[in-house]
Amino acid sequence: MDELSHQIVERQVLSPNVTRMVVRAARIAEVRQPGQFVILRGAENAERIPLTIADSDPARGTITLVIQALGRSTRELVALNVGDSIADIAGPLGRPTELIASGHAVCVGGGVGTAVVYPIAQGLQRRGVRVTSIIGGRSREWVIFENELRQQGEVIVCTDDGSQGRRGFVTDALRDLMNAQPIDAVYAVGPVPMMQNVANLTRPKAIHTIVSLNPIMVDGTGMCGGCRVTVGSETKFACVDGPEFDGHLVDFDMLRDRLTTYRTEEQAALSAHEGPCRVGI
Predict the structure, then answer these.
(1) Which of 18, 102, 116, 190 could cross-link to 194 by cystine, CB 3.0-4.6 Å?
(2) CA–CA gap between residue 233 and residue 213 (Å, rounded)
(3) Cis ω on the peptide bond leading into residue 215 (within 30° of 0)?
(4) pLDDT by residue (tens digit) across 144-162?
(5) Rounded distance, CA 279 to CA 263, Å?
């Protein structure tokens, strides 16, 4: 097989719209670090999609990607099967996570963000840091990576309906944990409102808080400017300066606005992909 062929060797549906894929990418697997990502195209002339590297196996020459199928391009990507190949993968991109060297770290993951905090928890645990992971989903079937995270330390599961773990939001569990014991750092990945609420919760106690941002990305080199975010009143580019930043300095309102810039175009592309709606369905 061609050394650069990015064949899918494993595929697993984790939740109703989240799929785990293990893909051949030997060169990336050898050097990637927690927090880094790739930009891929599922097929020639397809949209470029940024995805965090959830795990890697240098011995097998593979990386693990977790894809939330929301738009046309991600739905086409998760439709690929074992044996199919991804057209191209560029990476690893971005700055590695700044991991604390000792103490107690809390990794907070919301939805598909749980797959992003997993390599962070791995890196922390390997350093000897005590890790507590707080993960959440709407209900039981939306909770992912629980077993993997339990291998790194304690896990607290939260669901909106109480079907698994405790009922409520991940921020509720984080507040209780903060009141019960010292925390040296918090790493949060998930929906923008969740990360903003985590940062607001930790700010009064000055707990170092890192968030992973997901602005629109195109080239992954900082040249297009599509991924610009405001951090501490300065313009940063998530693909080269991040994707992780100090959560207490991020302008979340601006990030939220930029994420909705192309919503109309995204909905039009998805509608065209799905075809005409059928009445009654």
Answers:
(1) 190
(2) 16
(3) no
(4) 999 999 999 999 999 999 9
(5) 24
Q: What is the pTM of this model?
A: 0.87
**Residue 265 belongs to a domain:** no
Evaluate whether 161 touches 171 at the Cβ level (below 8 Å): no
For 43, the domain range is 6-93
- CATH number for the domain spanning 54: value is 2.40.30.10
Query: What is the DSSP annotation of 102-154?
Result: SSEEEEEEETTHHHHHHHHHHHHHHTT-EEEEEEEESSGGG--SHHHHHTTSE
Planar angle of CA 171, 115, 152, nearest 5 degrees: 80
Q: Note whether 46 and 12 are same-domain residues.
A: yes
> Do 130 and 23 belong to one domain?
no
- The tokens 């939220």 sit on which residue? 256
Q: Mind listing the pLDDT tens digit for each residue in 5-20? A: 799 999 999 998 899 9
3-state secondary structure of 32: coil
Per-residue confidence (pLDDT) for residue 84, from 0 to 100: 94
Q: Is the same domain home to 85 and 164?
A: no
Alpha helix positions (H), 181-231? 192-202
Q: Which two tokens stand for residue 213?
A: 């941002």
